[in-house]
Amino acid sequence: MHSNKLRFLIQRRARTMTKRHTVLKVAVLAIALACVLGCGSPDGDVATTWSAETKSPDGRWLATAQSQQWGGPGTAYDATMVFLKKLDSSDPPRTVLQFSHQYGTMNLEMKWLTPTRLDVMYAPSARPGDHVDIDFQMAKFDGVEISIQDLSGKSAKTFR
Known about the structure:
Blueprint: H1 2-39, E1 45-55, E2 61-71, E3 77-86, E4 94-101, E5 107-114, E6 117-123, E7 132-137, E8 140-141, E9 144-150
Parallel strand pairs: 6-9
Antiparallel strand pairs: 1-2, 2-3, 3-4, 4-7, 5-6, 8-9
């Protein structure tokens, strides 16, 4: 009698453990699937919404600006970066300014005042509630001075 009861208890325990193991496997697979579907590419869902470039008067430098918009759950972000690239070098472009803003683009204009002085004028878009924050600013890069002008207080016209 005791051996039947013991066998019953062992079989019951084995069925319970198998059910728990199956539930654990399903939970692990569900979490892995959610991570794969939710993460997407390493750069996230990014789109370039605007870009512009201008060469220095002596043709040695290229200034490029690019607005990008990231999307996804908890990762939405809008930014504009300004890069400098020495045209006679194989070095990659260097980020010299980075702005964050609420919409896909902002107002930005780049002008070379001299071969070694880049002036960047910026303002938020004309959309209500938009504002621009400077997240990164390099004042000088490889002999090129980078000056900025915040034109937020000026007229709301687009100047790029």
